[in-house]
């Protein structure tokens, strides 16, 4: 029986990726770089999980060699820009998410997060959208900077499962991307896949259920997956 839902964050809880893209471009401009990631390029770069990893990959694509210290400084600046934008209310929860969370809590379902994004990004989004008591809603949070390998590796889901003290068959992951589906399935979790703007063309095969949006989420899906 499924009694726990583990959410991805970027693209799943909220359509964050466009704000991430704008924050990356602002960070590049602020240090005098002429890089500009347009929507088409960013869609491709999202195949690489993790902001620092994405910057490193882009530098490699340009024929350069990435300096880890420079990448870390640049990503830190980008994170500060992004969290300021989120704090200002630039990123709401996706339609249907708040209603699903409220329904799950009424049913006594445990909620958790397993994401490749960093803890400052998590805190900014959840404080902005759910308020200061968000830790009561999500008592377990697995972030990308807590594990050695990011999605599609299963590490962050395995971390969440350890913290929850739950076997994977009691849990379901909600994901929006191919890498997320692969990570959750590798950790033994069934997946509800929800299409998002930047993963609209992703191959989500392997998910138990595929939905066009988060408004289609319902508690009834959990019993269907359990049966």
From TrEMBL:
Claim: Magnesium is one of the keywords in the record: no
Organism annotation: Candidatus Rhodoblastus alkanivorans
Protein name: HAD-IA family hydrolase
Keyword Hydrolase set for record: yes
Keywords on record: Hydrolase
GO molecular function, one term: hydrolase activity
Gene3D superfamilies for this protein: HAD superfamily/HAD-like, Putative phosphatase, domain 2
Transmembrane segments: none
InterPro entries (UniProt xref): CbbY-like (IPR044999), HAD-like_sf (IPR036412), HAD-SF_hydro_IA (IPR006439), HAD_sf (IPR023214), PGP-like_dom2 (IPR023198)
Database matches in Pfam families: Hydrolase
